[in-house]
Design a protein that fits this description.
6-stranded parallel β-sheet; about 35% helix; 4-stranded parallel β-sheet; 10 helices; Rossmann fold; 3 domains; about 325 residues; alpha/beta; 14 strands
C-alpha cells in the first residue's frame, strides 16, 4: 500500500500510527524536501515501511494531504485526525515508532521547546534547577538560545535527522517538551515524558501511565530517581491585595459573607468557627470568588482553559 503526506514534520510522524495499523507499505512525501531529509531515515527503519521517498508515479492508496479539511475538533489528537481521515481504526495506546538504544544517553533527559504551542504556566525554571545537569536540549539555534536565556543554561544535543533524535529519546531517562515534532517522536515511542500542554490547542493528549501532562503548571512525579514537586498554582497567581469588583466572598453554613478585604474576611471566617489556617481560608475565598467575577480577564480565561484541559486529561 502507498501512503502520501506533505505537511509538518509532527503531522507526518503521528500519521505513521495509522500507516502501521493499515499494514504498512511505502510512504511518500511531496512538496516538503526538509521532511524527506529529516524523516526518511526514521521512517525507513520502521518494520512496517518498505521505503520512504518523494512522490513518484505510483498509485496512492491512502493520502493524508487534506487531513485537516474535516476540521479539528477540540481535544482530538493529531494522530486520531489522521486515522479518521483514512478511516483506519488505530490503537494509539501502542507504540508506532521503533528504534534501537544508545547507552551514551542513559540517565539523560532530552528537552525541546519550540515557539509554538506554549503554556506560560509550565515550570521550566524549576525543572532546570532540579534536572539541568541531566538535560540535553534539541532544537534550532534560536530555540536553544531562547531557552537558556529564559530558564537557565543546559547542554545541547545536535542531531542531523530524526532517527538520531528518536534514538536519543528512546535511550534517555525522560523527554520533556511542548507540543512539537520531538514530542511526537516521544509519543510514537511511548517513552517516559512530561508534556507542556498548550491550553488553547490541546491536540497531543495521549493518556498513558508513563506520561505526565502538565496544563496548570504543577508537576508531582519522579524522574531519574529525583522526586519532582514543582510549580505554582494558577489560582495563587491572583493578587490577593487587589480587591475584585464586588468584593471577596466565602460561604459558611449556607451564609455568604463578603468583604473588600480578603484578610478581614479570613479573620471573620475563623471567628465563625472555620478551623483552618488563615492562608488556607484565603485560598477557599479565592476558589469561591474567582468563578463568580472577573478578577483579571486573562486569569479568568486561563482558569477556564485549564479546567477544559483537565477534563480531557481526566
Amino acid at each position: 500500500m502507498n501512503f502520501l503526506h506533505e505537511r509538518d514534520l509532527g503531522d507526518i510522524i503521528v500519521s505513521l500510527a495509522s500507516v502501521q495499523a493499515a499494514g504498512g507499505g511505502n510512504y511518500y512525501i511531496q512538496n516538503n524536501p526538509t521532511a524527506i531529509k529529516m524523516l526518511k531515515p526514521l521512517i525507513e527503519v520502521q518494520p512496517y515501511i518498505d521505503k520512504c521517498s518523494t512522490r513518484n508515479l505510483s498509485k496512492i492508496d491512502k493520502s493524508f494531504v487534506d487531513f485537516r479539511k474535516n476540521g479539528h475538533p477540540y481535544g482530538v489528537t493529531l494522530a486520531e485526525l489522521h486515522a479518521r481521515w483514512i478511516d483506519q481504526p488505530t490503537d494509539l495506546s501502542k507504540p508506532w515508532l521503533f528504534v534501537p538504544k544508545d547507552n551514551k544517553f542513559s540517565g539523560k533527559i532530552i528537552v525541546n521547546k519550540t515557539a509554538r504551542y506554549n503554556n506560560s504556566l509550565f515550570p521550566w525554571v524549576e525543572l532546570v534547577k532540579l534536572l539541568g545537569d541531566k538535560m540535553l536540549f534539541v532544537g534550532h539555534d534560536a530555540e536553544y538560545a531562547s531557552f537558556c536565556k529564559r530558564f537557565g543554561n543546559v547542554c545541547r544535543l545536535i542531531v542531523s535527522d530524526y532517527l538520531q533524535l528518536a534514538i536519543a529519546i528512546n535511550s534517555s531517562e525522560c523527554f520533556i517538551g511542548n507540543q512539537s515534532s520531538a514530542n511526537c517522536v516521544a509519543e510514537g515511542l511511548k517513552h517516559r515524558s512530561i508534556q507542556e500542554v498548550c491550553l488553547r490547542i490541546p491536540d497531543c493528549i495521549y493518556k498513558r501511565d508513563n506520561a505526565t501532562l502538565c496544563c496548570d503548571g504543577l508537576i508531582n512525579t519522579d524522574v531519574a530517581n529525583i522526586s519532582i514537586n514543582v510549580g505554582t498554582s494558577y489560582k495563587r497567581a491572583i493578587d490577593k491585595t487587589q480587591t475584585p469588583s464586588g468584593g471577596w466572598q466565602i460561604t459558611i453554613n449556607g451564609k455568604t459573607l463578603k468583604s473588600y478585604s480578603i484578610d478581614a474576611l479570613a479573620i471573620q471566617a475563623q471567628s465563625l468557627g472555620v478551623n483552618k489556617k488563615k492562608s488556607e481560608i484565603e485560598d477557599m475565598i479565592v476558589d469561591e470568588t474567582s468563578p463568580r467575577i472577573a478578577i483579571d480577564p486573562i486569569s479568568e480565561r486561563t482558569m477556564f482553559d485549564i479546567e477544559r484541559v483537565r477534563l480531557l486529561i481526566g
